[in-house]
Each structure stands twice: as C-alpha cells, then as structure tokens.
From TrEMBL:
Species lineage: Eukaryota, Fungi, Dikarya, Ascomycota, Taphrinomycotina
Gene3D superfamilies assigned: 3.30.750.200
Signal peptide limits: none
Protein name per its UniProtKB record: Radical S-adenosyl methionine domain-containing protein 1, mitochondrial
GO molecular function: 4 iron, 4 sulfur cluster binding; catalytic activity
Amino acid sequence: MRCRYTIIHALPSDLFSLAVLTFSRLSSSFLGGTPSLARSSLFSGIFEVLSRHGCQVSEETEVTMEANPSSYSSSCIISSLGFTRLSMGVQSFDDEILRLSNRDHNAKDALKILGTISSGQQLRHGFSFDLMFGFPNQTLASWKNDLDKALPFAQIGRHISLYELTLEPGTPLHRSVKNGLLQLPNEDLKEEMYDYAVDRMRQIGIYRYEVSNFGRTSRNNFATWQGVDYIGIGPGAHSRIKGTKGGKTRIIRIPEPGRWINMVESQGHGTAKSTTISREEYMEELIVSGLRTVPGVSRQTFQECTDRCLDNTLVLNRVQQLCQDGFLEMFENCDGLEDLDIPSYYNYIKGGVRATDKGLMV
C-alpha cells in the first residue's frame, strides 16, 4: 500500500517536469494493467493532485476508467470518484476463446457485468467494451453470435471497439499456432467477419469513426489521432508535447513503479526515454493516424497543427493513383460526416483526404 500513496506524492513532480499545463483538457484516461483494482482513495488523491496543480475537470471532460469484468465494482462508485466513462475489456462472449486468450472471466461474467452497467447507467459519457476476431477455430457463425450478444449493450453504452487478434511472441497461444496445434482463420474469413460487423452495426445506427472504433467518439482517442498534444504521468505513461521548429517531443516514463518512484524522487521526473520528432515526421504521423479515421485528414486541422498546407505536403501523383485505385478520396467539405458523433465536425468544412471503405481495410 505504501507504493500506491508514494505514487500520488510523486505525481506533481512528474507532471511539472513536462512543463505543459496550458493544453486543452478534453479527456483523461486511467489505463494500463487493471486500474479498477486500486482503492478509491488512490483516484481521489490523484484528482486532488491534478486539480491543485492546474488540471481542472469540467462538464465536457471525458475521464475514462479501464476495467475488466473480473475487477469491476460499480458504475455508481466509479462515477462518484469523478469518472465519466468506462472501458471494459470483454474480448469475447465465447468461453473457448476466452480460455485461449487466458482471460480470468467467462462469458457469463461479461454478460452479467454489462447488464449491470447498462441498467444502472451513471456515467455521463457512457461506456465502451471491446470484441476481438480472428481467433483460432473461430467461425463466421460464432462471430455473428458474439455480435448479437454485444450490440444491445453497444447501443446503450454508445461505443464498441473491434480488434483483430495479434499474436504476441512467447505467449502460449503464439506457440500453439506456431507449432501447428491451432490454426488461425484465413485473411478472407477475417475480412468477412469485419465487413459483417461494420454492416450489422450500421443497420442499427452505430457508425464506424475509426478502423477499430464505432459509435460515440472517444475524445481521448480522437484527439490523439488528430494530432493534439497529450501528457502521461505515472509508471509507463507516454506523452507527445510541443517540441522545437514545429516538431514534437515523445516521452516515455519508466514502466516499473518502484524504479519510476525512485527516479522521480531523485531526478524530479520518471522519464525513461525522450525522442525528438521533426516537423516532417510529425506531418507524416498526422497523415497516417488521420487516415485510420473515417473523417480522414482535415486541411484545416493539418494547417493548424503544422503550419503547412496539406495539399502541398502530399505527394499528389501518388495520392491521385491511390484515389484511382479506390483506396483514397479527396473531399472538399464535411458532407457525409453527419452521422458521425465527432467533436471536431466543423474542422472538415475545408475538406481534406480520407480513406475509402476499401482503404480502411488495408
């Protein structure tokens, strides 16, 4: 327990070492590991520290708690602590898939928790949960069954994320696939699973706003994709802040809590690595991340973030070829974005470039 309170005491130094207290505070997220396992006093202490040092939470601020079905307590309790949004790591409603992915909950647990959250909605910005596809032995029929169970909750929570399985080297699942004990679905089947999910959700008014995300836009995620600066404090946190000559600085904190605390106490910060991103690298990053979103890269936002013209930055002959091949499209206004619940809708009135449905699949 001493470690938890020491983390609170170390946060002000870690925060001030970034020297960034004037950014637009649209969102906060408590992620990594299972923060919902921590005592409530930890979070009230963190909010108090942030408030005391200039980081105010307004009615518009999205404050997200990450949780798993096995560690969740109550949306009422989470709301009373200052959280406005919950992100639940469900992954599947298929017990065999949950076993393969070494999750410590089962389908019954996930359904019960989502039912509890849905019936006692206390969170201003709703809740989200994730599903994964592309597991060994997973069929289109089993994926459809997962979606049938998920969509009623997604309509209430107003957000759902879909991720394709990525095998992590060294894990039991990776070894089983590598040794031929399990077989992954082929690319055609995975594409069919994803396309079915997109169409099925569109039918009930849940629209994709990014490759993996559907429904009410997460301000935290969307701001990151749109190039907004962000700061992360605490063990393992990441930041991207204003650098020199139009570039950015990327900062990674020490991941181990004990080492991070010692570093903050001795040096005033917990930085493990700091990398300079040039203006050109930042512009490329903006374009790549923006093309993951359905709205795409806005001319206006790109100009504001980089002081450069998007059209002059793009390799136009290459873009034109990708447009002809059906992967990209240039657009001149925000028509067609009306169904998307995005916080910066009017940033697209001058148009930009975006991926087509075909391009989003690449």
